[in-house]
Amino acid sequence: MADPKGFLKTRDRELPARRPVPIRLQDWREVYEHRPEDGPALARQAGRCMDCGIPFCHNGCPLGNLIPEWNDLARLGRWEDAIERLHATNNFPEFTGRLCPAPCETSCVLGINQPPVTIKNIEVSIADTAFAEGLVEPQVPGRLTNATVAVIGSGPAGLAAAQQLTRVGHTVAVFERDDAIGGLLRYGIPEFKMEKSVLDRRLAQMEAEGTRFRPGVAVGFDEGTTGTDLLERYDAVVLAMGATVRRELPVPGCDLDGIHQAMEYLPQGNRAALGEEVPGQISAEGKDVVIIGGGDTGADCLGTALRQGARSVTQLEIMPRPGEDRPEGQPWPTYPMIYRVASAHEEGGERVYATSTAQFVGDESGRVAELHVTEVDFVDGRPSPVAGTERVIPAQLVLLAMGFTSVETDGVVSQLGLEVDQRGRIVRDRQFATNVPGVFVAGDAGRGQSLIVWAIAEGRSAAAAVDSYLRGNTELPAPIEPTTMSIAV
Ligand SMILES: Cc1cc2nc3c(=O)[nH]c(=O)nc-3n(C[C@H](O)[C@H](O)[C@H](O)COP(=O)(O)OP(=O)(O)OC[C@H]3O[C@@H](n4cnc5c(N)ncnc54)[C@H](O)[C@@H]3O)c2cc1C
Ligand code: SF4
User: Fold this and answer.
1) In the sheet where 259-261 sits, what is the strand order?
2) What is the three-class DSSP state of 23?
């Protein structure tokens, strides 16, 4: 039972300090200095949890994390029990504790009239303390089944599915076309949000449990990896390939040099940050940079550009600036559309709202030199240019961070004849099964672009469905049913 007066004794919401901006801009390390067991402050914050009769945070969290239980265990410093309760519903709390937008906190009951419990920080503190104290051990299956599973794609959905299926004794191989495992956690999300060592220590646990990693294999394209090959070699296939087709901006000048997709820029920046030589790297050094897209991906480009030494950075968003408070139609406990400040936004750059790009103009060498933009009004929900607001923004580097439209349909999707819906998602039934027997889909590939927490929930649920398919029943938990609802990134 939580401290019944904890929320009365500690009224303030306290989070660990972020490192000072001038210092963190000099390196690529995580923005927070210290995580594991933030000591008495963490115990006080965990003690604010009221252990409500109906904990709405369970529902706010797509994984159904048992938040009040581990809040109290963290308050008492019972780390072994806390990580056991956390792992009961979440394979990778060290990822979500760093990267999740924490819909649990916007549905925290304390949040009705006080600042909500610092759930996300408590989660990452439990996970990091458990790793630091050697409490995260491989869970090797007691015995193996004869079944084999191929997981295509090594992002959070593929990894969660693989870990669950390995632990019940299936032989699981994870195929990844990049040279290293991790999906967007590896080359999309920058070091300053999550250091790759955090990913690597979890992958080491998975390898010790028996999951086989096969990086550098483009399934559907490399020899011996067509859809038919997979179905011949494996008893089941989980497609967790993400939604990687990028949204374009088809305005005049869009093919000028110096205009790049965020997912061309960020992976190179991540590699360089880790000391890799990246020939011809797209760099923001000394440039005026414009980022088109106001979401997480845009913020990641902003933090990266500032660390590379950009002269100026402007982030354009077509939607109006959200308010600081919940809009009327999004009351507690929903996840509201409000003005949020990512760590990168504290570091510099300018955010410009309700603005659309009409054209790019280049210099005589064919490189982008400026954007012609205009303010927009929303008429019947559609953006419409406001006359007389045209202006020019200088830019030698433009980064398109406008999201993703669909899964890639060449390769294994067309080889297997999988159905894809109008929004570019592989069609699946309530068991995460596609129209081809033995082929399942999880994560952004089936859901459309979403969040890490949803990808893990999908991977866990798809694993339960695969296990049922292979053995006729399962004891694996399935936190969600397939749905297309998600919070946009
Ligand atoms: C820059 C960026 C920042 C983000 N930041 C956040 C954040 O802070 N918090 C958050 O919750 N969400 C964030 N997201 C969204 C989140 O990363 C995704 O929702 C999540 O990674 C989806 O997981 P997934 O496993 O479905 O796919 P992915 O992580 O996309 O992984 C799919 C993998 O499949 C591989 N693949 C594809 N085709 C093949 C093939 N034919 N053969 C072999 N491998 C293949 C790809 O290379 C990729 O590695 C961000 C997204 C981006 C782009
Ligand atoms: S995974 Fe996200 S929503 Fe769930 S408890 Fe952690 S921070 Fe909250």
Assistant:
1) 259-261, 397-400, 288-292, 312-316, 350-352
2) helix
Mean per-residue pLDDT, 83-94:
98
Ranges for all domains in the chain classified under CATH 3.50.50.60: 148-244+405-471, 248-402
Say yes or no to pLDDT of 406 above 60.
yes
Instruction: List all residues whose CB is within 6 A of at least one atom of ligand 1.
Output: 99-100, 152-158, 175-178, 183-184, 188-189, 218-220, 240-242, 244, 263, 266, 296-297, 300, 411-412, 443-445, 449-453, 455, 489
d(CA 100, CA 453): 6
Q: 426 has which bridge partners?
A: 420
230-255 core/surface letters (b: 16 or more CB in 10 A; e: else): bbeebbbbbbbbbbbebbebeeebee
pLDDT in tens, 266-285: 999 999 999 999 999 999 99
SS3 at position 227: helix
For residue 32, give the DSSP letter.
B
CA of 186 to the centre of ligand 2 (A): 20
Summarised one tens digit per residue, pLDDT across range 462-489 is 999 999 999 999 999 999 888 654 443 3
Which residues are CB-contacts of 328 (< 8 A; sequence separation ≥ 6)? none
Block residue for tokens 């549905």: 107
Please, is 108 exposed, middle or buried when counting C-beta atoms within 10 Å of its C-beta (0-12, 13-18, 19+)? buried
Tell me the residue type at 486.
S
Q: How close is the Cα of 265 to the center of ligand 1, in Å? A: 15
Asked if the 248-402 domain carries CATH number 3.20.20.10, the reply is no
Mutational pocket test of ligand 1: of 100, 181, 187, 189, the residue with most ligand atoms within 8 Å of the beta carbon: 189
Q: Is the pTM of this model over 0.90?
A: yes
- The dihedral formed by the CA atoms of 152, 156, 159 and 160, expressed in degrees to the nearest 10: -120
Nearest residue CA, atom 7 of ligand 1?
99
pLDDT at 202 over 90: yes
Let me know: does 124 contact 90? Beta carbons within 8 Å.
no
Q: For residue range 229-256, list pLDDT tens digits in order.
A: 999 999 999 999 999 999 999 999 999 9
H/E stretch holding 215 = strand 212-215
CATH of range 148-244+405-471; options 3.40.50.720, 3.40.50.300, 3.50.50.60, 2.60.40.150: 3.50.50.60
pLDDT tens by residue, 430-462:
999 999 999 999 999 999 999 999 999 999 999
d(CA 31, CA 454): 24
SS3 content of the chain, % helix, strand, coil (to 5): 35, 15, 50
Q: Which CATH number fits domain 6-132: 1.10.1060.10, 3.40.50.300, 3.30.565.10, 3.40.50.2000?
A: 1.10.1060.10
